[in-house]
Amino acid sequence: MTTEQPEAGPTEWVNREEVGVGPWPGTWPTDPRYDPELLTNGDRRNVVDAYRYWRREAIVSDVDTRRHPFHVAIENFQHDHNIGTVVRTANAFAAAEVHIVGRRRWNRRGAMVTDRYQHLRHHEDVASLLDFATAGGLTVVAVDNTPGAEPVETAVLPRECLLLFGQEGPGLSEAAQTDSAKVVSIAQFGTTRSINAGVAAGIVMHAWIRQHADLAKAW
């Protein structure tokens, strides 16, 4: 008796041992967005195929034409190790900007080099972040599982907003909770008091995407 083998899935259709593409075959394109070094040596960066061989500045400029009007902020008063993941996710959803509140230094390893394509801004404290939001007409939406928080699963997120996340462990600072226009929480059903800050950021960003993004423009 023979056992029927399953059909190959999408990740098996091509060789995934090496990411990206090799040197450009044939005549080089004349478009100034292309990078001569990448055309010569190949492009192994973690970018979608539409941006293969493009200069970094050209990629950023192109994304700038279609970034979404939501910002993401995360407090970093205790060297939160989740910031890299937040930046990477914000880049995937084309957030307007990522704001780091508190300590300027953060571990970029989790960003997987996506910080090169994502606008970043530093604020010394929550007060300066809130001033930025007010000046930009952004509604501040804090994310924390606190009493009175609105479930993000049913909440209507403002289109022009700043999603504010606390750090792993202590959560949002008192100033962040007090001065935010809205506080939303993520439904949990297990034993843990909270979920990873990087995971929480991805959940809430995707909630915004589901409500406001034009999914026809996704890659």
What is the topology?
Layout: H1 36-41, H2 56-64, E1 68-76, H3 83-92, E2 95-102, E3 120-123, H4 126-135, E4 139-143, E5 150-151, E6 161-165, H5 174-179, E7 182-185, H6 197-212
Structural description of this entry:
The protein is 26% helix and 17% strand. The chain is α/β, with parallel strands linked by helices. The protein has two domains: 27-61, no CATH class; 67-214, SPOUT methyltransferase, trefoil knot domain (Alpha/beta knot). A seven-stranded parallel sheet has the order 3-2-1-6-4-7-5, sandwiched between helices. The longest helix is centred in the C-terminal third of the chain and has 16 residues, at 197-212.
Report mean pLDDT, rounded to a whole number.
Answer: 90
* Fourth-level CATH superfamily of the largest domain: SPOUT methyltransferase, trefoil knot domain
Q: Report the CATH topology name of the largest domain.
A: Alpha/beta knot
- Tell me the strand order in the biggest sheet: 3-2-1-6-4-7-5
Describe the structure in brief:
With 219 residues, the chain is of the alpha/beta class.
Please tag this protein with its features.
single chain; 219 residues; alpha/beta; Alpha/beta knot; 2 domains; 6 helices
